[in-house]
Amino acid sequence: MGENMTPVYLQDSRPDFAPFEIDCGTIPAFRYRGNLRSEMAEGRIAASTAIDLLEDMLMIREMEEMIVTVRSGAYEPLAGFNYRGPTHVSIGQEGASVGACSVLILKDHITSTHRGHGDSLARGCCAIRGMSIEQLRKRVPHSTSTTQEELLEQALEEHVYRTIAELFGKEDGYCRGRGGSMHIADFTVGHLGANAIVGGGVPIATGAAMGLRYLHTGGVVCCFAGDGAYCNGVVLESLNWAAQAQFTNEMAGKHPFGVPIIFFVLNNHYAMTGRSDREVMGVSHVAQRAVGFADNRMHAEIINGMDVLATRDAVMRAAQGCREGQGPYFFDVDTYRYFGHSLSDPRNEYRTRDEEAAWKAVDPILTFQKQLEDCKVLDEQGIAAVVKRVRDRNARAAVRAAQAADPPPADVIKYMYTDTFVDKVPAEFAKVEVLEPLAPIKRANGEITYRDAIKEAVIEEMLRDSRVIFYGEDVAEYGGAFKLSKGMLEMFGRERVFNTPISEACICGTAVGAAMIGLRPVVELMYMDFLLMAGDQVGNQASKWHYMSGAQVEVPMVLRVSVGAGKGYGGQHSQTLESEVVHVPGMYVIYPSTAYDAKGLMKSAIRDNNPIMFVESQGLYNEKGPVPDKEYLVPIGVADVKREGSDVTLVAYGPAVPLALKSAGRLQAESGVSAEVVDLRTLVPLDLETVLMSVQKTGRCVVISQAVSMGSFTGEVASRVQQEAFDYLDAPVLRVGAKNGIAPQSHVLEAVFYPRVEDILAAVKSIM
Ligand SMILES: Cc1ncc(C[n+]2csc(CCOP(=O)(O)OP(=O)(O)O)c2C)c(N)n1
């Protein structure tokens, strides 16, 4: 094979120290030189569209100015209304949001930020304007109107109403009052959510775009985020993720093409109060960030964000480029927010009135109004009529929103979880291509290892549903650090099984985005300790979006995490951190102890529509157990009595289960104590019933896990048992776990660090 016939991933990397220089290229700034007159002359914009642009910018400004006055009590139509929500207004940035959204189509998506009313209103308006009469009718189901014009107007008003209702925390809000201003989302128009975590939405956008690429929908994601966000680790990880060579070179499979995302930086020059340029960044323009991530600089450009036509032009070009496989794109959009970070920020500590005046002189609305007049699209009265239409519409919507029903208090945790799962795979996803079939996993006496059981489950589910994709660090050729996925790349190809950068936050965050747009990612974190690198994406994003969106979206993803412990790997490769995840509700947590349960639970997890943390014990990977080679599922949220007994209940999960079983054997043999062992299998949802039934029988309970005792999930189980079975208890409920310390390297220390059979025996003896 000639050198240039060798696939990239097989090409050697050899030493070659010949001197050379890297040319990082140039980044154009403000290359758009058009205006409304030239756009109209070239047929790039219709007069009616130009009016729509004005109307949408005005809608944002009016709405946000209203929020400001409502907050101060001065908004007349809502005098006395108590608005408690946040007030991060984007006044000044309307040209950026509206220009960008005006050229997206319905199958496209956006993500946004804490300052996202403008993006959200703009996305909704632009999407609604592109809707058919049938689609409009769905937005206003109670309308009796029949004309497109009337339905459009009603749908726009409903859009403002549902936006304001969400800000006011009402049941009619887009997220049923569960999200509010900073988490507003409308998944029906591809708005995947604003995000109150600075930078938190960027990996979600990236994962969604990666998913659109896999599904070949032709859709694009426009990722709105501020300049401040572009110092944040997960954002930089996302840039790297989106630009990975493996998505565009021949490794990408039959149809190499880039990730269709536009990183649209709303660069208003300030984070909260700190300056991005000249203070907390070492480059003078955010656009320079792109240079470090892709040889083509992600087509980076600096755009005039005060000119709605410039942002429109940029996104039009980028969206087309993305659809042709040229993504990602990076726009540093130069804009300004007139108000402070929030209303409690007077702004004078970090910027001058002169600076503000200079930006207001290039106001996106006023300059565009002037162009509309110059081009005779609207005269003064025409503009006044648009202003009035917007103002009246917003006022009607606000009054209606203020009077709308609050969510019923009894529903406070409704929508935490979904009870849906994939019963039947839609035909379009049931056809799965297998490149090189993998030999079936061999059974000796019907047994396979815990590792192979999990592998078999993932493979079976990938064969069942093409929406299941699998990725993580080193999982492709190498088969993962624990060889669990060996052969899966060859079987399913790199579009479905691929290595990732060492980006735990992005592994989790992209899975959220991919799940939001319809995939069912299974992703791997090599050690559970690395979960802390991904804390926000797991705790604030994966766990929360179903609830925060008012159940608009499901996030079906399985996060496989592997727990070290007992191998002398010390404090950063040995922790079992399930209690951290349990403490942020929203994610199911599964922790199997046998090969049988591992397979059945993994299959259930992949079919379930909740985000799921699947905890695996490295100590159990080689343990064998009977696993039928026929299809079966183990239900999530059902504990299992692994040994029956009558004197004491040992509640355990994961690697503590074999320990509990050994202890039960010794208790019987050495002291005639009959111990029942309950394997929780699932921590969330918790099957307390099975535990309570056992405790009612035995009157005694010891809860065991491998985790450090302080803050462990065993505390939760012990307290619930005490609370709900107090009358049946003959002794206090005890807990056994690892010492309240850090896992040591020394095998002598490690041997006493983790819970041992002796600890369990001592605990049981103390209560017998
Ligand atoms: C991870 C995180 N850190 C800090 C904050 C507090 N905070 C809210 S907005 C903000 C500034 C964000 O700046 P930028 O991304 O430029 O957006 P802008 O507010 O300018 O629109 C900060 C620090 C937060 N919400 N999330």
Give structural attributes:
single chain; 768 residues; alpha/beta; Rossmann fold; 3 domains; 7-stranded mixed β-sheet; 5-stranded parallel β-sheet; 26 helices; binds thiamine diphosphate
Summarize the structure.
This protein has 26 helices and 19 strands.
Structural features, described:
- The structure is a single chain.
- With 768 residues, the protein is of the alpha/beta class.
- Strands 8-7-9-10-12-11-17 form a seven-stranded mixed β-sheet, sandwiched between helices. A five-stranded parallel β-sheet has the order 1-2-3-5-4, sandwiched between helices. A five-stranded mixed β-sheet has the order 14-16-15-18-19, with helices on both faces.
- The N and C termini lie far apart (74 Å).
- The longest helix is centred in the first third of the chain and has 26 residues, at 47-72.
- It has three domains: 36-405, Rossmann fold (3-Layer(aba) Sandwich), CATH 3.40.50; 427-626, 3-Layer(aba) Sandwich (Rossmann fold); 640-767, Rossmann fold, CATH 3.40.50.920.
- The radius of gyration is 29 Å and the shape is globular.
- Thiamine diphosphate (TPP) is lined by residues 113-115, 196-198, 226-229, 266, 268, 270-272, 341.
- Seen as an oligomer or otherwise, the chain set is single chain
Helix content: 25-40%
Structural class: alpha/beta
Radius of gyration: 29 Å
Number of domains: 3
What do we call the CATH topology of the largest domain? Rossmann fold
**CATH-defined architecture of the largest domain:** 3-Layer(aba) Sandwich
Shape: globular
